[in-house]
Amino acid sequence: MLVVGEAFNIGDALFYAVLFIILMWLVKIVAWKPVTKMMQDRSDKIANDIDTAEKSRTEALELAKQRKEALVNSQAEANEIISKAQQTGDKRRESIINDANLDAKTIKENAEKDIAQQKRDALASTKDDVADLSIEIASKIIQKNLDANDQKTLIDSYIKGLDSHESN
Amino acid sequence: MDQTRTFQFCGLTFNVGNMISGLIVAAIVLGFVYFCSRKIQMKPTGKQNLLEYMIDFTNGIVKSTMPSGATKDYGLWAFTLFFFILVSNQLGLFLHIEVGGIVYVKSPTADPIVAMSFALMSMLIAQFSSVQKLGYKGHFETYLQPIPYLLPINLMEEFTNFLTLGIRVYGNIFAGELLAGLIAKMAFSHGIATLAISAPLEMAWMAFSVFIGCIQAYVFVTLSCVYVSQKLSIEE
Prior knowledge:
Chain A: InterPro entries: ATP_synth_B-like_membr_sf, ATP_synth_b/b'su_bac/chlpt, ATP_synth_F0_bsu_bac, ATP_synthase_B_chain. The complex is a heterodimer. By secondary structure, chain A is mainly α.
């Protein structure tokens, strides 16, 4: 009943071996290859997605950091610009004041020079007038025409004496 | 044993019942994977999920027994073997065709020839893997390990592995079908009374047989993988 050897047909064994091999081949073509390939692709894709997510996260962090830095930098720059502007303003103001002072000084000096010159001119003309007058007066008094040129030298020396007398 | 119809071809004996059953099983397995593997997508839907789960399951058997990296080489074999044995174990429970006392369709694995054929296939694959890894000289030297006079023991182990692997699945499935047949005979022996008793009994036994069939298919594939990995993991 349960004797194995009694009914062991090599034919059946061969038939099943061939059947199994053919079935395996067909399963491979029909399902195994495409499905395992798809599974592999999927796992690759998931791995890639994880990598890309990680990458984009780090990129976002990097960008945020850069933005922060840029913000800080721009603030510093703005401060710098303002202080620079203030400095240049101060400089300008000082230079303007200096220029004005200088101008005023030169104007004053010129004015003084002019005044001195005018004084000198006025003195010179008075000298002449006084000389003429005194000569006239003298000639009127003496009733005698003096040689005007001779007299002039005399009077000049006299007036020089006056001048030095005045300045002392 | 039931009567069988056999014929001779090229001096070999062929059993018609076994051949028909085997073809039916192969057709079922192939049809199922064909049906499940249409329109494969990156985002799997129901059918594809089922197929992928099954592939993962058999790959898991291979991964848990064999050295790493063997899934690529033995995954397809484990997958086909598991589902062929599984369907073979269940076929006779749902489809048992007898014509004139001759069985034409039953579980192929309820026949010792078929069960032993599969066991022999697994053992041959194990031997082949060993030869592939170590070469013929290295392979036959493994029978002299750890000491030469253990050669007969090693050969005996090889043989008993083959024997137990085949007979385990055959015995379970054969017993399941036998008892199912006996209960069926009892049901129709004394009219309505035995029928009332036998019907729930038969249902319970059928459910148990389905369970046993699944377990046996799993055990068969696991042990086949273990035998192969034993050969693969021999250290020089």
